[in-house]
Design a protein that fits this description.
542 residues; alpha+beta; seven-stranded mixed beta sheet; six-stranded mixed beta sheet; 16 helices; 22 strands; disordered C terminus; Tryptophan 7-halogenase; Flavin_halogenase
Length: 542
Amino acid sequence: MARLKNVLIVGGGTAGWLTACYLAKAVNAVDPRSVQVHLVESPDIGLLGVGEATFPSIRGTLAAIGLDERRFLVGATATYKQGIHYRHWVRPPGAPGADHFFHPFNAPSQRPGGPELLPYWLLGAAPHGMPFADAVSMQTTVAEHGRGPKRTRDGDYQGPMNHAFHFDAACFARVLAEHGQQALGVVRHAATVERAERDARGGIARVVTKEEGELTADLYVDCTGLRGLLVGQVMQSPFRRRADVLFADRAIAMQVPYDTPDAPIPSYTISTAQEAGWIWDIGLQRRRGTGYVYASRHTCDDRAEAVFRQYLGKAGEGGNATHLQFETGYRPEPWRKNCVAIGLAGGFVEPLESTGIALIELASYLLTHLLPGDTDGMDGAARHFNEMMGARYERIIDFIKMHYCLSQRRDSAFWIDNRDLASIPDTLRDKLAKWKHRPPHRLDFITDLEMFMPCSWQYILYGMEFQTDLAPMRSAFPHMDAAREEFAMIQRAAGRALEDLPDHRAIIEQLCREYAARATDRRGAPGPPHDPRRLPDAVRNV
């Protein structure tokens, strides 16, 4: 029995450095010498900074690793995200009916002793025609009026509105790299891994690099992206493809400028449905990150780029588009022997609900808390890890598929094919059958296996105009007057929130100025005027 002393993370980027920081912070919280975390990344492999949208769990993760929020905002050129604004998902442009809906991060309001509002919304107690998310949460109003989710006086990663972040992925990785090395003791190796060799028990014995020769560890974490250098090529862990459910397998990405330097920054991701997929549009501090996710079997690359550029208009003129390929699916055994895959090496689901980084967070959390004290405990930890990750992927795939299969669009083969029952998992079909007669309930979900809580399913379900017939059960909901008052109270509270919460761009710039002022105080001399486009020297030079 040998004590586990060293972990080697192969690959940098968001997956590698977020895992390194979380693992180093957690396992060394009591004894700084307990486990040494190393990371090897190639100086020859660049990072694609197309822009990333995250899930609210990121706040807890960044707080857990001790990363100052203002430092993060400056270094990653980050902004706040309060949800997702869906355009043309229910019906095509120009069709009669609503052309958008909002998925907020706040849960529906329910005061102690008050009625649950969803059944009463279904029975018509809300103001006539008001969408579900607007009726039960003030966050739609806050976001659509350009307000941020917090005030400057709120603590790091705190605020009255639940929120996540948008940021430049390459800049974020550099911030994490600096923090991991300087504050958490992660040892970085700037080297290119050429191959890995297995030991007599079938695990990884060593990785061989061009610059540093052999690197060894007790546990190897594969963060090499879609290549899956260790888990796929060496450990031969199979990949379960789910292209039969989620058709998108291509993306085109482009960075585009704002119309003016002081243009408002939406505090939400904009997702606009197209003929063969959807376009993301996120606002960073000085530019937008945009991209078109599409299915190659429903359109060609040239047509996809033409659709994308038409959406961008003048902002996309002359811009270079980056074409990406991916495959939806996951490895049922991301942990084999002493090798565990995190990030794209373990699986990928299209970015519609920003699950990519959230899955990295989850995997890092599971790895940290399942990490055995000795090398003989690997197999049991691996089984638990694999079960949890596999179930999470399947539930995410169901959730994403629901967006597509409930659409009323019939204007292209892509949308028609997404309605085909053969493409809808049995688990999702069973849920939808139940929800025709009653709304989603927490007992429909196994909390520890879910990324999306019941309210998220409700927001998408009813944003997509799914019909639940509660008329036969009307007598079970006798508190119509109380519910009407709750709906009215939420609208009054939304008005007060607009007065209390600052403009989104304004709070971002204020917090960045405060960070610059702190840096000036630490240096003891005035520095140059703050420019959020410029990374702090320590971050830029990593």
